Amino acid sequence: MEEILVNILSRLPVKSVVRFNCVSKFWNTLISHPYFRKKHLNHAKNHARSQKLLSLDCLDDNNRLHFYSYSLSLVQLVKDIRVVDCPSNSNAEGTEVYCSCDGLFLIGIWTEPHVEQPSLLMIWNPSTRESIVLPHSKFNNDEDDDDEFRSTYGLGYDSISDDYKVFRLVMTKDGQNKNEIFALKNNSWRIIEETSSLDWIDCSMYSGGEFLPFVDGAFHWLGISSKLSVVSFNISSEVYRDIPLPEIVCYLTLSRFEYDVKIEVDVGLTVLAGMLGLYYKDDNFFNLWVMEDKHGSSWMKLFTISSYRIYRVIPTYTFSDYQMLLCFQLDSTTRSRFVYRIISVGSFGLNNQIWPLDHDAKDGIVYTESLIFPKLGQ
Fold this sequence. Notes:
The chain is mostly beta strands and 378 residues long. The chain has a domain at 1-46. 14% of the residues lie in helices and 41% in strands. It is built from six helices and 24 strands. A four-stranded antiparallel beta sheet has the order 3-2-1-24. It holds the Pfam family F-box. This is F-box domain-containing protein. Residues 1-40 form the F-box domain.
């Protein structure tokens, strides 16, 4: 009987399941159990109604920051918009959403202006509104000059240790990498010791501030060694790896510096349908590839579209039937407009249509609505 109940409840939307918490103590215990939450997540990952787009929107409402959650179902594109408030941000000077994993978001919050590092890091589930604040890292405590380094973050699930981990890639002014990892079960930061795998890999980022895509148990970023490449870090084995990029991307990107070519180029990584994606944009065209295999040996080009008079193109989500959602940032100003378009890749070429939104959505991050919420030290 209990297993039947689990099978039924695990297929319902988060909003419906949360309501059942109040039915009885038994139901509350059942829904709160890690086994049920994981089973619910596995169903949600394969259901279109559970796929959402979270977009930060700054409203002049007592200096509070609001997030909008948009449905990504092609059946009901804009009917599931709701406002969700980020906890502990009533005095926030700034907020950055770094990434999402299994419905959890890693968010940096600044309480002071003109400071490089966030005042606090928080893991937040917008579906259940649960949140935890992470302790300060070793570098936050040890470094005297906040401007001496930059950092970016990734959040991922380690299936070997059954734990969620935060990876911090730290870039100092002298080009050194002092990377850290935070395991929620241990509730502590740990500096990653340099291993032999680093002897032949330069982990410096090609561009800072971007999020770290998490694919197949590893974080990825663009690094520079003798040429542009993808660097990956496996959170289970803690081993770094170097993945070659398509030769045309390396040539076009690095030739700008060698020949002092005055062309605006944007190169980045993303996650599309569980695969690692790579994009390259210049003044005229936007190109998109995906990694075809887990061994990092083969890139497949998806399409090329015009990017004339577009500041940035951000691959956001892959629907079924080869439809892809792209976010177009029209200019580089703080009040820049964002336009979302669906690109259809088919036998008749490329098609694109505007994806309607009720609000002026900014650059959003895709997530799966879930009940997942890990606790520190457990």
